[in-house]
């Protein structure tokens, strides 16, 4: 993947270039200090990937994108978190807050890799509604995710989500006082979430272990868990109760 770095801070560009050295599949083909310079280099270099700051002298990163007829895949790099929703509205792959963490950069590049290297679709039988999706990097509790339910949007840190629960053909997310629905299965979420933090309690629910308030024995050697912050009590299946004890006992 050929990448262009656009940031008015030379130090920020140097730090990002240094971080990208850990990813041999990424080649930094150029750097730009502002939108006008970036526009010229985009035309000349035709990069696959654009690491783009938002606040720059002259035009913002959003204004640069709006002026382009075509653009590479974009990963925003910024010190400001209030533009996250706007970033996803312009189909950004990811939104990295400075100082950029290596695990977040890894996740962003995995998304870029999936977009750029997925083979052309072929006619095959699929196992379920999500089988056609390209694999993406696992998420940590420190990652922030974009959640949209109808006309409402959130940019929420996974550590703030205490429960995922099946609701019809959707999954309901519990964080703060919100209960949005997303078109994802628990199986898909379980594959993406850190198993050291998010535990599949039963066929209907995944809990955040750091939100557990109390645990009590329940019927047939199972467990019942109460979470801080409200929401339903969670009855852990017999198989998962045994796994829970084994995983968390000294």
TrEMBL record:
<keyword id="KW-0238">DNA-binding</keyword>
<dbReference type="InterPro" id="IPR046947">
    <property type="entry name" value="LytR-like"/>
</dbReference>
<dbReference type="InterPro" id="IPR011006">
    <property type="entry name" value="CheY-like_superfamily"/>
</dbReference>
<dbReference type="Pfam" id="PF04397">
    <property type="entry name" value="LytTR"/>
</dbReference>
<dbReference type="GO" id="GO:0003677">
    <property type="term" value="F:DNA binding"/>
</dbReference>
<feature type="domain" description="Response regulatory">
    <location>
        <begin position="2"/>
        <end position="113"/>
    </location>
</feature>
<dbReference type="InterPro" id="IPR001789">
    <property type="entry name" value="Sig_transdc_resp-reg_receiver"/>
</dbReference>
<dbReference type="Pfam" id="PF00072">
    <property type="entry name" value="Response_reg"/>
</dbReference>
<feature type="modified residue" description="4-aspartylphosphate">
    <location>
        <position position="53"/>
    </location>
</feature>
<protein>
    <submittedName>
        <fullName>DNA-binding response regulator</fullName>
    </submittedName>
</protein>
<dbReference type="GO" id="GO:0000156">
    <property type="term" value="F:phosphorelay response regulator activity"/>
</dbReference>
<feature type="domain" description="HTH LytTR-type">
    <location>
        <begin position="147"/>
        <end position="250"/>
    </location>
</feature>
<dbReference type="InterPro" id="IPR007492">
    <property type="entry name" value="LytTR_DNA-bd_dom"/>
</dbReference>
<keyword id="KW-0597">Phosphoprotein</keyword>
